[in-house]
Amino acid sequence: MSGDKPGRPAIKSISEGFVVEERAALRLRPRGQHRVYLLKKSHWNTLDLIRFLSRSLSLPLDKFSYGGKKDRHGLTYQFIAIRDQADFSREGKEFVLESRGFMDRPMSPDLITRFFSSLSPIEYAPLSMLPQLVNRAYVALN
């Protein structure tokens, strides 16, 4: 166990064990106005990463669309779209952007069908410490 103060237990990183996957009803095509990507990320929230991509790709922010915002805690899989024919697939610091096809419309919340999330054990601790660990995990996620 590690802690922020000596003798105080803490979960090292809730991000390592928290996974959120977005499922969407996408009608992908071989061509279209919006290229759809699967975005895998950790330690980024959705808006900050889209702003980063906008700057690094020299694309206006209004070319990007997404269905839902995911925070920086955990490993997240979500769909975004960029209104451009070019393939901007890439790997960066704590993210992977993979092209999946095209749509004739932007990505939006109405295309999301569900989310799956899971929290896996991160490290073992004595059962007597469970209430403290659950409380710290709750605080880290909120």
Question: Could you give a quick summary of the protein structure above?
Answer:
The chain is 17% helix and 33% strand. By secondary structure, it is of the alpha+beta class. Strand 5 (90-92) and strand 6 (95-103) form a beta hairpin.
Mean pLDDT: 79
Class computed from helices, strands and strand pairing: alpha+beta
Secondary-structure element order, as H and E? Answer: EEHEEEEEH
Shape: globular
Number of strands: 7
Helix content: 10-25%
Largest sheet: 7 strands, mixed
Low-confidence stretches: 1-15, 137-142
Question: Main attributes?
Answer:
about 140 residues; alpha+beta; seven-stranded mixed beta sheet; 7 strands; disordered N terminus
Explained architecture:
The protein has 2 helices and 7 strands; from the N terminus they run ββαβββββα. By secondary structure, the chain is α+β, with helices and mostly antiparallel strands. The radius of gyration is 18 Å and the shape is globular.
Helices and strands, with pairings:
Blueprint: E1 18-24, E2 34-42, H1 46-57, E3 64-66, E4 75-82, E5 90-92, E6 95-103, E7 112-119, H2 130-141
Parallel strand pairs: 1-4
Antiparallel strand pairs: 1-7, 2-4, 2-6, 3-4, 5-6
